[in-house]
């Protein structure tokens, strides 16, 4: 995948041949990558959507099983579709532009009365929360 780094962490129980085969099923060939690890064994793994709906369940189950086997406590995988609950990059960029305009371009004395509501309308604080 041109959008992934040269080296990244994947569950050790996934064979290289499986990774290569599965990579074609992901949008942008973005294989699951281990993004964060906590000392208690919790991990955050990012994964792009699988293109082929018919293959999705099989591939998803194989990868989740590999993640579970790699977890020190063998805990089950909790999946969350962040596309449904997080803003996209364009919304974040627009909020940042509004925040910059509010903080840099507008004289504070003229906007003091409505500054907090203007800040809220940027959605920046919602997004970074």
What percentage of residues falls in helices of 4 or more residues?
40-55%
Strand content range: 5-15%
Order of secondary-structure elements: HEEHHHHHH
How large, in whole angstroms, is the Cα Rg?
20 Å
Low-confidence stretches: none
Q: What is the overall silhouette?
A: elongated
Query: What is the topology, as strand order, of the major beta sheet?
Result: 1-2
Mean pLDDT: 81
Number of domains: 2
Helix count from the secondary structure assignment: 7
| Derived structural class | mainly alpha
Number of strands: 2
The largest sheet, given as strand count, sense and whether it forms a barrel, is: 2 strands, antiparallel
Distance between the termini: 30 Å
Provide an overview of this structure.
With 129 residues, the protein is mostly helical. It has helices at residues 16-23, 53-70, 82-85, 89-105, 108-111, 115-122, 124-128; strands at residues 33-37, 43-46. The protein is 50% helix and 7% strand. A two-stranded antiparallel ribbon has the order 1-2. The two termini are 30 Å apart. The model has no long low-confidence stretch (mean pLDDT 81).
Summarize the structure.
With 129 residues, the chain is mainly alpha-helical. 50% of the residues lie in helices and 7% in strands. It folds into 2 domains: 16-80, no CATH class; 86-128.
């Amino acid at each position: 995948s041109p959008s992934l780094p040269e080296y990244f962490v994947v569950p050790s129980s996934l064979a290289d041949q499986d990774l290569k085969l599965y990579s074609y099923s992901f949008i942008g060939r973005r294989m699951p990558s281990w993004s964060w690890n906590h000392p208690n064994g919790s991990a955050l793994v990012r994964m792009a959507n699988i293109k082929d709906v018919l293959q999705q369940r099989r591939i998803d189950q194989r990868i989740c099983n590999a993640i579970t086997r790699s977890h020190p406590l063998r805990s089950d995988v909790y999946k969350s579709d962040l596309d449904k609950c997080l803003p996209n990059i364009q919304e974040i960029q627009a909020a940042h532009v509004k925040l910059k305009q509010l903080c840099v371009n507008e004289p504070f004395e003229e906007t003091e009365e409505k500054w907090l509501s203007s800040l809220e309308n940027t959605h920046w604080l919602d997004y970074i929360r």
